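Task: sequence in, structure out. Protein: MYND-type domain-containing protein.
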Amino acid sequence: MAHPVLWRGKTFFYPIGNTSAVCLTQDLCPTEKADVLLLGCGDPRHIIYTVYTNSTGSQASRKLDFTCCDLESAVIARNVILFTLLADEGAAQRVPQIWNIFFHFFLDKASHDLLISQCKKLVALSSDLDSWHNGPYGHFLRMCTGDTLAELRRLWKLYVKTTTCSPSEAKAFESAYAADVKASKAKFEFVFTASRAAGPLSMYALKMAGDHYNIYWETGVCSAVPKRPSEVSHPNPTLAYSMVGDKFAVHYGTDPLSCFHLAEALAPTVGSARHPDQFTLKDVVNVCKTQFSRWCTSVSNVLRSQFPSSSSPLIIRCFVGDALSLCQALGYSHTTKSTSTAFPIAPWKTPCITFDPNAYGTGTQSPAPTTFNVIDTSNLLDYVGVLNIIAVTSPILQRTPSATLYTEGLSSPEDTLAEQLCGDIATMGLLLGLIPACFVSQFTNRSNMHEHIVRLSQNATQNHERLAWKLIGGAEKLLTDLDCPIDIAPEQLAGVFLNIYLNMFSHENVVRRLAMVKQSPESIKLSGIIHYHRRSFVEILGVVKRRVITDWDSTMNMLHGKIQNDRTLMTGMNFYQDLCCQLHLLGVFDVDWLSLKKVQEVHRVERPFVFRDWKTLPQTLCVVLVVPGDHLQPLLPDLDEAGTPVLQCDVRGVATQNAFSAINTVFGTITTSGQGDSKTAAIKEDATGRYGTSPLVVWFWVPSIVLVNERHLSVVLSVLSTPATCTLATKRGLDLSIFRADLGDEHFVYILRQRPNAVPESPEEKNLQIGGRPTKTSGACTFVTLDRECKKPLSFTTRVDIVEPEMKASLTSGATPTVNQVSMHSIAIVLGDKSLQFPFPLPIDAKKAKLRIARKSLYVEIILPLKLVLGDTDSDMFPVIPQGGDLALWNMHRVNLDQCVPFSIANKKALGWVNPHVSLMMSDRERRIPNGLTTGSTLLDVKHSLHFIFGHASGLAEGKPPLGYALQVKGEPEIFLMFYITDLRLDVGSHTMVADAWVMPSSPSAEKFEAFSQVCSHLRPSNMKMIGMGVEEKKAWMHLLVAATERCRTWEHKTNCEYRVQGAIPLTLESDESPICSCGAGKGTESFVKKYPMLRPLAPFVTRAVISPLFALSYIEKVGNLEDLIASNTPPTPAPAAVVRNMCAACGKEGGASGSLLICGRCKAVRYCSQGCQREDWKGHKKSCVAPSS
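Result:
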């Protein structure tokens, strides 16, 4: 398994989601087919909301293919019930009963009868895969494996069985169910986690969320009335069975309101002046039910509009099992085209994943996807670790700019993303090929204002963060190979590997661990959460091996030596044999002593008794340990109390102890056949698991030499020592042993050449090795140089061979190449009249490029420092990339504006949330930069302008919003952009607000002049807001306009679209020309004309755009104190960007368009034209020069 085996004592059932629904296709091109993998999918809220958001506009033609994976079979069983009910005739009329079935603990008779009737139907259809797929639901609802269908059928039969038992059994069931519901309610005084679902208005939802939680858990129904109706008396059987057992075990934090968008209920509707405080809990519940009805109706309409014989526009595939195993099996199937894999379905299970040949086999007419352009991992990183997720998902993420991996989790504000990644974000991105898009752009369109409010109200220690990861380098239009390899010197690569290793296993650093406990006793609990073992580390090395061009053997030999010499991890060498074994099994590297030749030499000399019948000895062996059930049963209470301790096996000798953490476990019985090296074993799993009487069977791989070098060995099942296991150590001893057996005791220990249950045609684990190494291509390769500590990347180096005749002539004649910045990720090397462009995976600074010129050998070597300093962004920070005839947005998600609810600005007191919300665009570092001076940051300049726009559009700045806005560079005569805002709307999926805008860039034409002449009397200085800015900010707005119009596009680009014809995006950066294509001009302008009838002549020239705040990244730097912002309903009007100029703070000299001024290295807030000016200004500047917070 890719994750350590955990003993799960106290567990919960999560049938209902705890975060608001999101649109899973928001980062794809509008008509791009969506191949979506949902890992830890939970309930289907994301699916039904995504179908709803794709029900209009150009997205309505999109094909949606969801593969849903959850370890909890009851989750999938419930989801299938919902989807099949929606596919049946009359679904729209039954939505209220479907709501009850899905969310209520207790059901009325009509809802209960509908549920049982549906379960009986599903049982009849699910005898086998053929029966299911040929049934009425099989054309859109597919089962990935036969094991999945069998498990779902078992649960549906249990649900039905609750209605066929005797009266006494029924009464006992109802009594136990009610008691479990009562016992499961949180013991906290106030639970308001559902307030997160209100996003920017969550300050108004705190009390309502707490009230609803109490009503929901007291009555078992989602209601504003604190009394359950008498007719609602039937226990909901879908909540009575789960992995926890045959009992109600729903998590105590569950609240259906968390799944929905409560901001829609709290924001004043257009035409209303109602304050959010005036909305009632009944209003909120009704809005949630309305949203559920809208989403379900959209799904039902799609399913009812298709025929079983036709290709379905919506396919939902189900898999019950482990997310990491499924990803590995999909990757293996994609590479080998085999439906049989060696990856276990789940921890504590013996069967391996075998896909349905009719869907995943070769020759299938419509094969199921094995790679995906959307992978959503829910909050799995809290349970399995972000590195494990990236290691298994990166190989199956499609290689397109729009392909996205989503992660989300609840972490401590002090637990930074770099700490979760076990390394610097940029470094890990280069090694693994994936990086958060917002990390590169330094902003996000998704708000986490609700997290700030929750922390203010209850001093919460958790922070919810959802990140979109993209293929590194995907923001660059020039980069055609998104698997483009990088090169790193072996000594530096070995150094960064060691740093990752030390961070992944920091729990073995006893000195650091004791310091943590001393500083914070609460960290004892946190330090017990272990996500990684040596196999996890090797999986990461495998991903890097596929990406990096270097002398791999030299790198690994250096790393091997560093690990052997490390003394930081006190118990690190205990896992040395485990590490070497996993390196071999995954084909990453073989240490010298593990070569087949060395093993055979040892076998000829050393023949322990256990190998008496072995003819040959392989490099690795499978050891099986059987722990008797009667020995384990007395230990269960102690193990349960230890939380989630990690299980491992040790091979102990008189003077040695080798630990192996990549183990497999299952409750069942084992039988063997054969002798010596032909012995095989088969395990029959006990479905009752820990609650039965069967022994616990454990197996793991070891290097053969471990079992040969010492005569008296024992095999031990034990618990990994962490501070959280201190109590267990007092009961089980310091070695935390659970069971021990001599290696030669054939009652309890078996040594095998193959794993248990392997058959001759099984793909063996040792054959599931890393794919081919990257090779140097004819193009330029990027060489990465790290800092001295091998932690952070400093520069990229690339060698450019000059082959073009004119460029060769220029170089040999003595000409010096110049390096120009083309985009934040690319440069152009200019020689004479010719140039060559080169992309890089991360932003670079061409102004600081260094050249090494080889005139005789005709090549140029360019060294480029990285440009990752906070605030130091280029104007092209909103990339729009051509992709397969369409356009992809790299760091701004798409928005269906017509589905974004507009809100009223009539009552300014009802908008107390707007200024705090918009103000979260600024980090504390940015707030310290004095307003009115040159900021030195194009991004901050844009943020100031956006703050100005939202302040006036909401009416909070001056009372009445202006008619329109005009953007102009100070010192230039022409306005380069005018736009008009028809509505402020809620982008509920991203917990933010957006402006529904109509933009008209400057591009003089006779028709436009004529239109202006008809409306100029209405466009007076009194009702137009002028926003002045510098040249660099204007360039940024040109890029932003392309992204803003593309984000909400409902029209198709024409075949003669200017983007295609001119091959440029944006089309221009000149003030008197339009940066956007004309394809969207005049499209869908009815709302514009309705809002501004006096501007009707402009309608043919305006293009719809979505303008949204650009929020600071709370996982990178400290963001805002909301207390002061919430206290004021009126936003401080930001200084127009015209006074924040690109000029020397000492002499006033203007900076050029290329940004030639020097920036203060400490505060990043002022610029100078020379070092002399900086020295001259220091006496005054040092009083306000403050370093930004990290």
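The chain is about 30% helix and 20% strand.
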